[in-house]
From TrEMBL:
Key words of the record: ATP-binding, Nucleotide-binding, Transport
Database matches in SMART domains: AAA
Top-rank taxon, per record: Bacteria
Keyword Transport recorded: yes
The name this protein goes by in its record: ABC transporter ATP-binding protein
GO molecular function: ATP binding; ATP hydrolysis activity
Domain ABC transporter residues, every copy: 6-228
Length: 286
């Protein structure tokens, strides 16, 4: 039996006199879980994640567990004059790291997330960073303390393709190390590509998913010699790493994607069905 790192029981949330945003939400987050939260605009995803990250309290119900938490908020406070390395080192120290540890870890994450050297080395103030780069600093901040539970609000939005790949690796690593990840995402396919379980927030409730249908089967294709911006029909995600392009595509588009890639002079390095999501679920219709 796996032990929960974090649990919500019958959680409700209401802002003032407005109708409840969350009602009777229960969720267990255990080591190895990668949980995706889907939902339309205003459905309460950010509210739920804020409660999981303990930056907001539920109006009713309980939250239990004391894991080391990393939290990427929906809007990263990027209005600072501070530079990314100094900002992260400051947060690291505030969270109990030594100055040296905080600076080393901050630099390592910024390098891994591929901030340009000017941004990384502190030439650019936070408030002048692009949305994607601010998101990377936010991610580095969330990862700084090596969290047991990583809670991220729409982490894939605004990231370039290569950072998508890094984030996918980070999620997989947390899981392999016995940690857990919970993140929100509005695109079902993007969430399903990285999760072990998917839920949808609707009417304030967290709806469990229904089993994956064969129509949602996916293929991973690794190519060399393609344009990194190539986006064929059926594409779910695309990651560029070491001059290889790794595509995740809906299975029914696989043959057409391969044919088009070969026509354009690419070389096929690998094609395989993705079966690594035992609990991945297709979600209920909107
Ligand atoms: N601090 C707050 N005070 C008052 N109302 C709030 C507050 N935070 C969120 N809300 C309201 O609660 C509802 C749910 O918002 P929330 O941001 O949790 O949804 P969301 O699913 O993350 O939306 P989106 O995808 O648009 O970011 C919305 O109607 C929002 O206006």
């Amino acid at each position: 039996m796996t032990t929960s790192l974090l649990s919500l029981r019958d959680v409700g949330k209401r802002y003032g006199r407005a109708p409840a945003v969350l009602a009777g939400v229960s969720l267990d987050v255990a080591g190895g879980d990668v949980i995706g939260i889907l939902g339309g605009n205003g459905s309460g995803k950010s509210t739920l994640l804020r409660i999981l990250a303990a930056v907001a309290r539920p109006s009713t119900g309980t939250r239990t567990g004391h894991p080391v938490l990393g939290y990427l908020p929906d809007r990263f406070p990027a209005g600072h004059r501070m530079r990314a390395p100094a900002y992260l080192a400051h947060l690291g120290r505030a969270g109990g790291l030594s100055t040296r540890d905080a600076s080393t870890r901050a630099a390592a994450w910024l390098r891994r997330l591929e901030l340009t050297s000017a941004e990384r080395d502190g030439a650019v103030p936070l408030r002048e960073l692009s949305k994607g780069n601010a998101q990377k600093v936010g991610l580095a901040q969330a990862l700084l303390h090596d969290p047991d539970v990583l809670v991220m609000d729409e982490p894939f939005s605004g990231l370039d393709r290569s950072a998508h790949g890094v984030l996918a690796d980070v999620i997989a690593e947390r899981r392999e190390q016995g940690g857990a990840v919970v993140f929100s995402e509005h695109r079902t396919e993007v969430a399903a590509a990285h999760t072990t379980a998917l839920y949808r927030l609707s009417g304030g409730r967290l709806i469990p998913a229904v089993p994956t249908s064969p129509a949602t089967a996916r293929m991973r294709i690794v190519l060399t010699g393609t344009d990194p911006e190539w986006a064929p029909d059926g594409l779910i995600s695309s990651t560029v790493r070491d001059e290889r392009t790794e595509l995740l595509v809906h299975a029914e588009h696989c043959d057409a994607v391969l044919a088009e890639a070969l026509r354009n002079g690419a070389s096929v390095r690998e094609v395989r069905e993705v079966r690594d999501l035992p609990d991945a679920r297709e979600v209920l219709p909107e």
